[in-house]
Each structure stands twice: as C-alpha cells, then as structure tokens.
Amino acid sequence: MSSDRRVAIITGASRGIGNATAKLLASRNILSIGISRHVEESNETRRCDVRDEDSISRVFAEVATTHGRIDILVNCAGIATPGDALSLGLGDWESVLRTNLIGTYFCCKHAIPYMRAQRYGRIINTASVAARSYSRTASVAYTCSKYGVVGLTRQLAAEFGRDGININCVAPSQTLSEMLTAAVAGADLKQLAAGNPLGRLAEPGEVAETIGFLASEQASYINGTVIDINGGVL
Fold first, then answer.
1. Domain total for the chain?
2. What range defines the domain where residue 131 resides?
3. Backbone phi, psi, residue 207, to 5°
C-alpha cells in the first residue's frame, strides 16, 4: 500500500540525534520509521543492525513494500570508542568502521534503488566535527570513520544527483547524547562546553533541525554538502 506521505527511515533512532530526528520528522507529517538494535518492533520502529547487510536489506524491503516508497534516509547510527592512537587493534578498527562507515554505506546502498525508481530521495549522513580536524574525545578509528562518511557522501552525491537524489552530511560537534555522557566524565563535559565559542554543547534537537531542513523541499539545490553544527569550533 502506497503512503500519501513522505516515508523516512532513521537509523540509530533509539537515542540521541537519531531519536530527536525521528520525532522531528514525524511532527512534520512524515511517516518516520526509526531503526536500531535497541527498539521493540512497532509501526514506527524496526529492529535492525546496520552492521548486518542482510538485516538492512530485509527491513528496507519491508518498509518499501508496506508503504510503497522510501523518500528519506537519515544515517545516525554510530559508535565512538576511546583509545590511545597506538593501542588500537584490528578488532577496534573493524568495530568502529563496520558501524559508522560501512553501515552507513549499506543503508545508502539499499535505499538508493527505491529512490532512483521514483526519481526522488533525500539522504542525510552524520559525520562529526572530528571529520573537520580531529576528535577531542574519541579514538583515531572514530575520526577516520567520520572522514570516510564525508567522502562517501560526496561520492554518492555526484553519482546519483541526476536521479533526483540529494545526498548531504551534517558534522556536529560534541552533542549531549547518551553516547557522549556515557563516554565522557561530567568534569570533562564542562571543559568541552567551556571550550566552545558558545560556551555549551549542542542539544540533539538542534542537530535534528538541520537534518530536517536537508530533508525538506527547501534544500532541493543542496547536494554533496557538509554542514557544520558546532557552535563555532574551528
């Protein structure tokens, strides 16, 4: 059955930026389906592991079959790991890259054919301020994964723009999400906030607002762009 509303899939929707984005798009009359390893199945959520291509293929096909379309994909699933630059092993690299970069690619890979068929799509990937310089809180594997997301975004944008698919990327600085507060002690969070020109960290909803803009018709001529959401951090 085809939906008369735009249909969006948001990864990493159980918390943080992904959760805020799913709620924002739903408030704008977009049928928002959040996917995560940590949700119960419902009309608005699907359990899916972005590290597993078969899981992605199954869920995306089910959404497209049920609702007749996939219009918007927002890739927010990600992990951040600590670690001295010279202490990481192969497993550390594989874990981060599999989730942050390869998982983002798999989701794009399985959304684009549906968008291409309808000659319309919006994809918004999530990089990081780390992809503009370096990470103050996470490992070198995390930084490299986010640089990769920027490259993936620009490569796909160049290839699929003529199919009516706009592909962009946001690069937030440290955001007050569960992932950050679990990894960084309270005193360090205060220090991070004090070092920002605005004197505070971002809220997930602020990042979601920019994602919502990129998913809208008002952003129809924005493609292959990385938008910084960082309070002025250089």
1. 1
2. 7-229
3. -70, -40
